[in-house]
Amino acid sequence: MIRTAILGASGYVGGELLRLLAAHPQLHAAKLFGESKAGRPVAETHPHLAPFYAGSFEKFDEAALADVDLILAALPHGHSQDVAPTILERGIPFVDLGADFRLNNAATYERWYGHAHKAPALLGEFVYGIPELNRAAIRGSKAVAAAGCYATAAILALKPLVDSGLVNPKSLIVDAASGVSGAGREAKEATGFSTVDGSFSAYGLLNHRHTAEMEMALDATVLFTPHLVPMTRGILATCYGEATGEGDPLETLRAAYADEPFFHVTDASPATKWVSGSNGVQVTARYDNRTGRVLALSAIDNLGKGAGGQMVQCANLMLGLEETAGLTAIGVYP
């Protein structure tokens, strides 16, 4: 059994990790760190997990890592920079969901996050955590920065099209809509029921931080607009690019993802409900002869492939386990 510590276990992603580990054949949630809920029962915060977790959350203690084989961190932005040096020094395999180590240089980080990176020397230690892009590098790595949820959805829809020369990488537009769980568990007026119910809104205009990840992974220029939709889970990314090459974009996606266990390339327009509660990705694409553009869409669960599921997928690779262990591409429907 692989003893796993979860940092940020009391949040929505922490709860998703606990749910996945409860069914994982080898990863065991041994240390559940949750600063704001320390001392309180896990079942009080995550009642759906009451049959599996009888203990309480703990305050983070470096000494408690002595008997840990894996660390999964779902901390608020900026916090991983404080703990990463200690974790890497100990040599414990570490999957971080925060944005702290996703970008490949400190200057880009400062541009998009508005402050200097506190541990720039460690940026090169982390592999960008989308297995379908970086599987070989993730295998055996000690540090992986799992990709952002919006970035995952957009990159997976566009990467094969950019790489095959079917779209102009300087012309990309991404419109993506997410459920409110993407904003985290902390109560906020902007994501409260009375604010979001019956409403659909855009935010982060021109400066959403996941843009930097998209541009890094695609080697492209991206205009990204995120939207908040009144649902709990899921992301639908609608992506556009100027067509520059011959070929069928749908068949290009089929060829790129033919052997990927969590992908379904569909003729239909995918919906978030199809992947809810899973690590699945459903994608499609079209060429529009009228406008000379390519349209690509992807649907993921923002807490699954966009967060906890992708973290477990990366951890499986890092530890030499079956990549699909504890994960499924089967959504919960209706």
Automatic annotation (TrEMBL):
Record key words, sorted: Amino-acid biosynthesis, Arginine biosynthesis, Cytoplasm, NADP, Oxidoreductase
Active site per database record: 149
Gene Ontology MF terms in the entry: N-acetyl-gamma-glutamyl-phosphate reductase activity
Catalytic activity: N-acetyl-L-glutamate 5-semialdehyde + phosphate + NADP(+) = N-acetyl-L-glutamyl 5-phosphate + NADPH + H(+)
EC number(s) on file: 1.2.1.38
Alphabetical list of SMART domains matching this protein: Semialdhyde_dh
Top-level taxon of the source organism: Bacteria
Entries under SUPFAM superfamilies matching the protein: Glyceraldehyde-3-phosphate dehydrogenase-like, C-terminal domain (SSF55347), NAD(P)-binding Rossmann-fold domains (SSF51735)
Domain Semialdehyde dehydrogenase NAD-binding: 3-141
Presence of the UniProt keyword Oxidoreductase in the record: yes
Task of the protein: Catalyzes the NADPH-dependent reduction of N-acetyl-5-glutamyl phosphate to yield N-acetyl-L-glutamate 5-semialdehyde.
NCBIfam families, A to Z: argC
Name the record gives this protein: N-acetyl-gamma-glutamyl-phosphate reductase
Gene: argC
